[in-house]
Amino acid sequence: MDKIKKVIINYIKKEKTDFAILVNGEWGSGKTYYFKNEIIPEIEAIKSCNKNLKAVYVTLSGISTVDDIYRQIAAEKYKTDNKSAQIGFGVINSVANVFNINLKDNFKPEQFLSFENNILIFDDLERISTEISISDIFGFINTNFVEHNNIKTIIIADESKFKSKFEEKAYLQIKEKLIGLTLDFKTNLFNVFPKIILSYKSDKKFYKLLNTHQEFAVFLFNSLEIKNIRTIIFILEILKEIHSTCDNKLVTLHTEKIIFFSTIITKEYKDGKLTISNENDNKGLDKINDNFYLNLNSQKLLSPEVEIPPQEPEEKFLIDFYNKYIKANPDKYYFFLSIFKFISSGILDYLLLNEELASVKIDSEARKEDIILNRMFNFKQLDDKEFDEYIPKFLSFVKSGTYNLYLYPSIFSFLYFFNKNQLIDISETKLFELFDSAVDNINRDIDVSDYEAQRISIFKTDNIEIKSYTDKILQIHKEISKNDDKVKFDEMLSLVSTGGEYYNDYNQYLMQSMFDIVDVDILYKHIVKTENRNFIKWQDFFEFRYRAVNCKEFLHTDYPIIVDLKTRLEQIINSEISQLRKFHINELIKVIAKVIKKLK
């Protein structure tokens, strides 16, 4: 860019010129920012006839006639260097109104304009109205300013946006009459970024934060080919809002993770991969964690020729997203729901963000076993000494069930691969004994993930042993899920019996079969301990749960439980209880009878 500045200054200092300069660069590459902040101040520091030069900057966006250009020039010129003339234009306008003169048709601003000591800068050439052509604009500028009046003129544009509309020879003929020199503008973020962040200098703490992390930010923007200055400023504004409203210590601690996530989500929106139609639809990005992609990687390790097609569009999106952004930066990715919603809706939930930031692990806090696991999954990058050092520690952690349940199919695959390729000195029998110990010792006190289980279930291998251990992991998942479901179902039934609200938090269990989750004893106990005033809640519960005409299709296994429950409630009627109590139970039996009829 220094070259562009040098060429332009030399052009302006020439005594007489009969051509214009075209500065060509992509949309959003920072051309306008560069001119307003770098070139125009340099121009206006130059003296001519003991007077400073004045740049007249005009945008051609939306221009539909050549008269519009003159009016734009007049408005800009008298706004900047002749206030009295601006007032004079107002007087002319008032007089014209008194005598009913159409100023637009009769007033010709070019008759009153002088361009002594002015440099004309026309921006946004590619954004002119379709009612006027590029050749008309070029011809107008050439005839009125450049060729005969020798006014120094610079045109800023993205040539690619209109050049393709012409045959190459025709375009060159139009261009060569006006443009004597074309300068290609390319963003150099290492030079531009420090100047961009100067606008935040008044906020000393935030400016210091940006300075501290500018190398990371610039490297990230360059690696993702983000050259649009407006996009970069948008990302910085996100960071500024977060810094001003959230816990500064936490923000400072995790700045690079915030920058990374904000950048990749912003880019996905700008590229049209994400839409603002539903801010709550995060496309499953919260599912990308330490386990993600390891199952596929381990499968390819065992069977490189097997290519597993993604099961759903969301799956394909996640794999593409992972490859595009996270594969090269796994330690920088953390899903911030608050930032995701902030980018899509413009509203920052700073309380949620503070909670998220507090839960983010600091790199230095990574567990030793996790560090070793990552080394093993990237064993090709290790030297002999490192590999030999990590293997026994890794085997020990695996055997003791240290790792997350859903990582074990990948771990088993990697160790089996190591064994087959004689990378570890352990027999196959001993290896499977280690696998058995791992299965026995795996921590069951975890948050189950149906998504992770689904990822494991599509794992394909010809090896019967690996398949059997994968099935064992899935069986553990089912057992934990079942126990969790029992707890949740029991919580829901407790809320019904006490008159609490359960629709929102337990909605998924309302549509889930009771079979194998809750036995009739538990259901019966919840009902009989219900106070009279809450019996209506049980009627609501059964009516809502079995309201669908086709509920038999997905809740038919409830039938024996419901029949047994009805029998037990009928027995209560014959016992010595109050008439009011009998009334409530009878009302409930009527509802249950209708349910039985639906399920039979």
Notes on the protein architecture:
- The protein starts with a helix and ends with a helix.
- Helix content is 59%, strand content 5%.
- The protein folds into 4 domains: 185 residues, 3-Layer(aba) Sandwich (Rossmann fold), CATH 3.40.50; 123 residues, no CATH class; 108 residues, no CATH class; 89 residues, no CATH class.
- It is mainly alpha-helical.
- About 1% of the residues have low confidence.
Overall shape: it is elongated
Query: How much is the radius of gyration in Å?
Result: 36 Å
Q: What kind of assembly state do the chains in view correspond to?
A: single chain
Number of domains: 4
CATH-scheme architecture of the largest domain: 3-Layer(aba) Sandwich
Can you list the strand order of the major beta sheet?
4-5-6-1-7
Helix content: 55-70%
- Tell me the CATH superfamily of the largest domain: P-loop containing nucleotide triphosphate hydrolases
Number of strands: 7
Secondary structure class reads: mainly alpha
Euclidean distance between termini CA atoms: 80 Å
Contiguous uncertain segments of 5+ residues: 80-86
Number of helices: 29
If you average the pLDDT, what whole number results?
A: 83
> Which CATH class of the largest domain?
Alpha Beta
What is the beta-strand fraction?
A: 5-15%
CATH topology category name of the largest domain: Rossmann fold
Largest sheet: 5 strands, parallel
